[in-house]
Automatic annotation (TrEMBL):
It holds the Pfam family Ubiquitin_RHG40_C. One of its GO terms (biological process) is negative regulation of stress fiber assembly. This is RHG40/28/18 C-terminal ubiquitin-like domain-containing protein. GO terms for cellular component: cytoplasm.
Amino acid sequence: MNRMSLWNVSMVMAPNLFHGDRRQEVRPTKTFAAAMATLNPALCVMSQVPCFLLAQVRRMNQASNRRRAPSRVRKRPQQDAPPLCDDVIRVRAPLQVKVSTAMRLDTTTTARNVTERFPRDAHSGETLRLYEAGGNIGERRLQPDCLLLDVYRVNPGCDWLIKP
């Protein structure tokens, strides 16, 4: 979690994005930082990966998983993992609880709905995030308004993790 204010982040990022004379004064730096502070709220939208690229990464990961030779080491079966029904996911919060929680998905279930079911640490004040890990993708943090049933249908073999 970044505890820097928006202005401080802008002051750090501005010289890297707006190249100028090496003999810059403080005034141009403040002007560039003000421009960055204006752009920062839109950065989360501008930095999202388009769906077609994400689908291509999933296909590449599936192809590389098929090419790998099977491992001789056997994985231990999970103790708390009985088979689940369709549209039911098992969410783990390894930093909070030792067991996983089963949740049924419907067409309106979002990542925010899932993270709200887990208690937050009042002392740290960190926001909990839902991650999709494994299956046909490495690991990615899901946006709070992401519809989970769509993600589940694209990647049914993934693990669902709650992390700060």
